[in-house]
Amino acid sequence: MLKTTGAECLVVNNKSCTDDPLFQSLSVTAHKWMPIEEVKRWHLESYLSRMKAKGYVLVGTEQTEQSLRLSEYT
Q1: 52 Cβ contact list (under 8 Å, min separation 6)
Q2: Residue 7 near residue 70, CB atoms below 8 Å
Q3: Within 1-74, where are the H helices?
Q4: In a 3-state reduction of DSSP, which class is residue 28?
Q5: Beta-carbon-side half-sphere exposure of residue 41 (alpha carbons within 13 Å)
Q6: pLDDT given at position 52
Q7: Is residue 20 a contact partner of residue 36, using CB atoms and an 8 Å limit?
Q8: For the chain, what is the mean pLDDT?
Q9: What is the pTM of this model?
Q10: In tens digits, what is the pLDDT along the chain, a chain of 74 residues?
């Protein structure tokens, strides 16, 4: 049985993106309460493989007009 607990962290290529006013407006302060991990592009594949091997479900997100709320994701 798969137990879901929601997103545990946000993975970005460069943590400085959190200083961008556009990021701050889109994240609706999530960057203040959710851990953010910096993983460079050249390490992303191995990072994701390790997380998947640990049992994590990997979800890529993008905010668009057609986006679903994360709470609606199954």
Answers
A1: 58
A2: yes
A3: 21-27, 30-33, 41-53
A4: coil
A5: 0
A6: 92
A7: no
A8: 79
A9: 0.61
A10: 445 566 777 888 888 877 888 777 766 667 677 788 899 999 999 999 999 999 988 877 777 888 877 777 77
What is the helix (H) or strand (E) element at residue 61, kind and residue range? none
Nearest to 58 by CA among 14, 15, 10, 16: 10
Cβ contacts of 24 within 8 Å, gap of 6 or more = 18, 31
Place of tokens 């203040």: 32
Residue type for 4, please? T
Q: Which DSSP category does 3 fall into?
A: -
Amino acid residing at 46 = S
DSSP symbol at 69: P
